[in-house]
From TrEMBL:
Species in which this protein is naturally found: Allokutzneria multivorans
SUPFAM superfamilies named among the record's database cross-references: TTHA0583/YokD-like (SSF110710)
Source species, domain of life: Bacteria
This protein's encoding gene: aacC
Family per record: Belongs to the antibiotic N-acetyltransferase family.
EC number(s) from the headed UniProt entry: 2.3.1.-
Record keywords: Acyltransferase, Antibiotic resistance, Transferase
Protein name in UniProt: Aminoglycoside N(3)-acetyltransferase
Reactions that this protein is recorded to catalyse: a 2-deoxystreptamine antibiotic + acetyl-CoA = an N(3)-acetyl-2-deoxystreptamine antibiotic + CoA + H(+)
InterPro entries noted in UniProt: Amioglycoside_AcTrfase, Antibiotic_NAT-like
Amino acid sequence: MPLHHNDLTEGWLRTGVAEGMTLIVHSSLSSLGEVDGGAATVVESLLSVVGPEGTVVTPAFTPHVTDPSPEHHAVPDDELLRRRAAVPLFHPDLPTTMGAVAEALRARPDSVRSSHPQASVAAVGARAQEIVSRQPLGFALGHDSPFARLHDVDARILLIGVGHDRNSFLHHVESLTPAPRLKVRRFPSTINEERVWVETVDVGDDNGTFFPQIGREFEQHAGVRPVTVGKAACVLVPTKPFRAFAIARLTELLAAHQRDTAQ
């Protein structure tokens, strides 16, 4: 039997989602099983539960807006020029690759989106414009980012059928640690009607190294228990205590890793 709107709303209520809440949602549509109406029904059900005073946010990342050959620093040949020219410029209607639910929310006519070429978020609801209003090019998930504002408004992180390796809030956490892992972002932009390539520094990718461990430890520490919605294990995590816990724990893990690699 497929899941319907009412099945999902009942499930979100069991996870702890409540009216007026601001959510950042990471999800796998397929993990729920068959859903009547697909991703659009999932989005509608979430908006129904948080109500008109609530807000639903999803990562709307566009990792395909990137240099196809970042290691190439010499003068590009014709083939590389063609490949780089084929990389799209970011714009608000550019689809995200963060999954069907994220794309369904981004594509809604009432959705707004932050401006980062690779790490934007999309939002619908009472606080949507506030959440997406500013986003730096460097450390895109850092101090003055949508993720910082999600923390400040006491948002909740809802994981639907995914683990903390998909929890982008942990990149925000890492940006606040004393010695984060770093990477270079490179993406095309238009300045004075000229297409140019922009480089910025950001936190690196975890690739499952520490984020799943930190997420598990916080859930145990805070007594967070998964709730099954459809076929998906779902957890609801409060951003404020999670950020405080995760900054301290990730700082410890990164320091230990640096000591180990230095030996």
